[in-house]
């Protein structure tokens, strides 16, 4: 943050010694004084309809709006911008909207994670280059939320975040239809021949009944919850449905509050502390959230100069009860979760397991917000004394198959498969898997471990959500509904099953996954946190010595830069040069403000 004395020096340097008329705002450097640059800069605001004689001391509030017709999740954000602006104006600020690349989890290929880092850079450079004192970030979709939080950590100016909320619930055959989890279940029924072509067409019309995020505890809802748990998103707002008027009220309130945060100097990294991240990990397990959140929290914390090792996630998971009964691990939807009281109730039930003194964007603590929460439906949000599961929603596995770690959402897995041994069936790529998975002559039985490689951060690149390998059709017809599946990919937060993800190091950089052969025995033991290739170490090393890295698909552009610089899953898949390595590299370097 620029201090008041720094602001005065900048002003004197560029405006011929005219003293600043406001109180040390970052934007003073652009607008204060009577010199050439200040006059030209103020004239820009005049074209937007602002009376430049009355802007002194008013903070410039950027409103980050990623809304786009390319991303149905966030189309509704356009309607929220005027409400945020109204709040900013009422509190004495000047709201200015800016756009970013849309990160549509459904239409953007091969992976929205690929562009998460790019959007974080886009926001960081927008804030760096423009006179912005504080930011309201509007989000909904899976990767937009972490991208914005990564940028907030890097910029370290006052920031609040608001989600557009989960979409309306659809209905199929008279039953509620979640936008992800139920779709995957009906897809298996269709592939098994239990759903007709006509019924499949009918389901398509019921799947996405409004804009908004996925309406179960997928990655969208999980990351909104993580933002609230960190203290960036206002308490109680992360689960408000997209079409609920309370979301609109929250937008105006956030617009008012960001002006106060600027005057108080309540910057993003004052909120996102190590203790706040530990709270978020605790909440992640209590809500049985998406495995993707592990990667995102590590990346966001990394931008703050905070390391979150995988063992910390596993240790917190082992001591945290699952309190929320939502799909894909349970049976309810986010709308039910909000009706029951939302995240403040979860945090109240976690009680002294949290760092309750962590400050939030409201200026109050996490404990203050949780203290007044009331549970309105104990079937949806369980009490700490009667949890859905005692612990272990998300587990970290290690062994010679994934020495850098792998993750499993045990809360959404099949209990009988949590200790399993079977022969490997290896797919070299996602394309090979799609081509062969439903072949009638596929050499596969119920005990087979399906393994797919070259789908990690560098392998595609971008680590797509391909990890939930479909159950082979021949086994679906036999009634097999789950199998152990392993890859270096991710999976949708709405997915379920005994799916082991993020295996590291990934196969494309020579991780052990690269040398597994068909028929090799693989052992999974979740209780012992073990994932083992039952081949002796000498044989594994011999195979690795004869392995050669695949040629990168992309030789230019952002995708080449991503593949050259992306970190592994346990490091958050950020780009290596965006993650600060020391205290000096945490500093947000301000631009020189002079003639363009």
Please give a structural write-up.
- The protein has three domains: 58-168 and 210-371, 3-Layer(aba) Sandwich (Rossmann fold); 170-206, no CATH class; 394-545, 3-Layer(bba) Sandwich (Glucose Oxidase, domain 1), CATH 3.50.30.
- Helices cover 35% and strands 12% of the residues.
- The chain contains 21 helices and 14 strands.
- The strands form three sheets. It has an eight-stranded mixed β-sheet with strand order 7-8-12-11-10-9-13-14. It has a four-stranded parallel β-sheet with strand order 2-1-3-4, sandwiched between helices. The chain has a two-stranded antiparallel ribbon with strand order 5-6.
- α9 (219-230) packs parallel to α13 (292-303) and α12 (274-286) runs antiparallel to α13.
- The protein is globular, with a radius of gyration of 25 Å.
- The model is unreliable at 1-22 (pLDDT under 50).
Termini separation (Å)? 23 Å
Low-confidence stretches: 1-22
Determine the mean pLDDT. 93
Total separate domains: 3
Number of strands: 14
- Helix-residue proportion: 25-40%
* Major sheet: 8 strands, mixed
CATH topology annotation of the largest domain: Rossmann fold
Name the shape in a single word. Answer: globular
List the strand order in the largest sheet. 7-8-12-11-10-9-13-14
CATH superfamily of the largest domain: Flavodoxin domain
Computed CA radius of gyration, to the nearest angstrom: 25 Å
């Amino acid at each position: 943050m620029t201090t008041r004395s720094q602001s005065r020096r900048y002003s004197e340097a560029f405006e011929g010694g005219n003293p600043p008329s406001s109180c040390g705002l970052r934007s003073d450097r652009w607008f204060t004084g009577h010199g050439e640059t200040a006059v030209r800069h103020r004239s820009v605001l005049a074209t937007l309809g602002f009376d430049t004689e009355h802007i002194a001391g008013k903070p410039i509030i950027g409103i980050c709006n990623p809304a786009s017709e390319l991303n149905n999740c966030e189309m509704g954000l356009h309607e929220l911008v005027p409400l945020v602006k109204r709040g900013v104006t009422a509190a004495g600020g000047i709201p200015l909207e800016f756009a970013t690349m849309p990160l549509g989890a459904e239409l953007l290929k091969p992976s929205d994670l690929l562009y998460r880092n790019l959007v974080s850079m886009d926001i960081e450079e927008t804030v760096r280059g423009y006179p912005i004192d504080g930011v309201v970030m509007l989000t909904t979709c899976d990767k937009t939320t972490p991208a914005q939080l990564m940028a907030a950590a890097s910029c370290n100016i006052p920031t609040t975040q608001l989600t557009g909320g989960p979409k309306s619930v659809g209905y199929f055959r008279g039953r509620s239809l979640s936008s992800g989890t139920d779709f995957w279940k009906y897809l298996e029924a269709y592939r098994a021949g239990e759903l007709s072509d006509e019924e499949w067409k009918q389901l398509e019309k019921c799947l996405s009944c409004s804009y908004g995020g996925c309406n179960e505890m997928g990655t969208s809802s999980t990351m909104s919850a993580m933002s609230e748990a960190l203290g960036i998103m206002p308490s109680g707002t992360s689960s408000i449905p997209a079409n609920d008027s309370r979301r609109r009220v929250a937008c105006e309130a956030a617009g008012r509050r960001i002006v106060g945060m600027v005057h108080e100097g309540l910057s993003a990294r004052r909120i996102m502390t190590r203790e706040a991240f530990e709270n978020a990990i605790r909440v992640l397990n209590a809500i049985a959230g998406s495995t993707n959140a592990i990667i995102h929290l590590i990346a966001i914390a990394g931008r703050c100069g905070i390391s979150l090792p995988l063992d910390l996630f596993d240790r917190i998971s082992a001591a945290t009860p699952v309190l929320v009964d939502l799909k894909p691990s349970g049976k309810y939807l986010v709308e039910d979760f909000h009706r029951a009281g939302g995240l403040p109730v979860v945090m109240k039930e976690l009680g002294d397991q949290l760092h309750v003194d962590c400050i939030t964007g409201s200026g109050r603590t996490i404990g203050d917000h949780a203290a007044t929460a009331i549970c309105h439906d104990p079937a949806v949000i369980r009490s700490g004394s009667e949890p859905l599961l005692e612990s272990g929603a998300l587990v970290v596995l290690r062994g010679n198959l994934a020495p850098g770690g792998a993750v499993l959402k045990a809360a959404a897995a099949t209990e009988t498969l949590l200790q399993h041994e079977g022969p490997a069936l290896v797919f070299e790529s996602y394309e090979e898997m799609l081509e062969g998975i439903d072949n009638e002559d596929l050499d596969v039985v119920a005990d087979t471990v399906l393994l797919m490689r070259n789908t990690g951060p560098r392998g595609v690149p971008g680590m797509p959500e391909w990890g939930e390998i479909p159950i082979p059709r021949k086994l679906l017809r036999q009634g097999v509904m789950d199998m152990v599946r392993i890859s270096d990919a991710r999976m949708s937060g709405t997915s379920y099953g005994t799916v082991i993800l993020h295996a590291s190091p990934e196969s494309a950089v020579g991780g052990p996954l690269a040398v597994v052969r068909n028929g090799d025995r693989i052992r999974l033991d979740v209780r012992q946190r073990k994932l083992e290739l039952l081949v002796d170490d000498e044989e594994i090393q011999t195979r690795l010595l004869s392995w050669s890295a695949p040629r990168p698909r992309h030789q230019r552009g952002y995708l080449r830069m991503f593949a050259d610089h992306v970190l592994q899953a346990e490091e958050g898949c950020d780009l290596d040069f965006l993650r600060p390595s020391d205290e000096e590299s945490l500093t947000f370097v301000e631009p020189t403000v002079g003639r363009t």
